[in-house]
Structure formats: C-alpha cells, structure tokens
Amino acid sequence: MKRFDSILLRTFLYGLPLILLLAIFSYSYDSVPPVSANNYIILLENFAGFMFMSWMLLSIYLGIRLMFSGIFREKVLTKLTFIKERDEREVMLTGKAAKATMLTTLAILIFLFVLSCFQISVCSIPLEKAIDGKTNIISLGVKLELLENLPKDDAREAMQEQTIFSYAGLPISSSALILGLIIWQVVAYNYSMRRLMK
C-alpha cells in the first residue's frame, strides 16, 4: 500500500504541469463551436476532460489518505511544511512552533467566524415610509447559516429601500479562504520555528 500511495503521489505531482497546460488549452478553445473544430481538437478536448476527471479523483483519494493515514500524512506533510526533526532539541522546538501556529490559526478562525456572522446595512427608505421623519435606517444582524444559497427574506425589497452601505459577511470565497489558511499554517510554523531556533 505504501508503494501504491507513493506512485499515486508522484503521478499527482508530475501530472500537475500537464493539467495546467490542458486547462490553458481548454480555456483558449472554449469559444470554438464543435462544428468548426477539427477532429484533433475534439480528440484533445476529450483527452483533457478524461485527464481532469482522473486528476480530480486522484486528488480526492490523496485527500482522504492524508486525513486517515498517519504514516502517509507525516511523510507528505512534513516535506510540504519543511519540518525537520534531527535531534531532541528540534523535536521540542517543533512542538512549541506547532502550538504557536495552532493558537494563532485558531484566533484567526474565530475572528473570521465573527466577521462572517455579522450583517450591517445603511439604507434610505421612501419619505412616505419614514419613521419620525427619518429616511435613513441602520440594520444590524447576525447570520449563522450551515448551508449556502438559502432563500433570502424579501421584506426589505417590499419597503423599496435604497442601500447606501451593506456588509453581509466575508467578501472572499471559501476556496480562497481555505487556501489562505493553508499558506498561513506553513508560513506561521516556519516563522515560529526560525524564531525559536535563534
């Protein structure tokens, strides 16, 4: 099983440049209609689709292996994060750096969770719907949704209000947020390790 995982991991890494090239090719020929495309382009697009599907399945398999196999996880992620434990001192420093990284990441996650739950909007409503002659309203709310794309309340639209300022959660996508946290983990650990080594 170890040899099989190693082969799949190498296939994943060495196949990454090919996937990027195929993605660029597919994007550049995306606007070409199937009627005007010649057989070579159609064949290459079919090959690209098969390669994307294979690479995605391989990514899912490797992700599951990283979660559930301690040996595989340690082998791969220690190289990815540049963890080196050559003696007892470095083992101890690795533990301290990992603790510092975990606590700062947890603090960032709590902060981002709070920001994602808050909703603030400043709106202007028609004069006939004004309350005590005031046409500007501030709305504060807390939103905690476990699923995306839930139906929205249309009560505000019924008031015909004009939004001046609105904040309804983090403006970045979940993919960008997860990628940012992965990069943060690696950078924060290595920074902590270098600081402790001095």
From TrEMBL:
<feature type="transmembrane region" description="Helical">
    <location>
        <begin position="7"/>
        <end position="27"/>
    </location>
</feature>
<feature type="transmembrane region" description="Helical">
    <location>
        <begin position="164"/>
        <end position="189"/>
    </location>
</feature>
<keyword id="KW-1133">Transmembrane helix</keyword>
<feature type="transmembrane region" description="Helical">
    <location>
        <begin position="106"/>
        <end position="127"/>
    </location>
</feature>
<keyword id="KW-0812">Transmembrane</keyword>
<feature type="transmembrane region" description="Helical">
    <location>
        <begin position="47"/>
        <end position="68"/>
    </location>
</feature>
<protein>
    <submittedName>
        <fullName>Uncharacterized protein</fullName>
    </submittedName>
</protein>
<keyword id="KW-0472">Membrane</keyword>
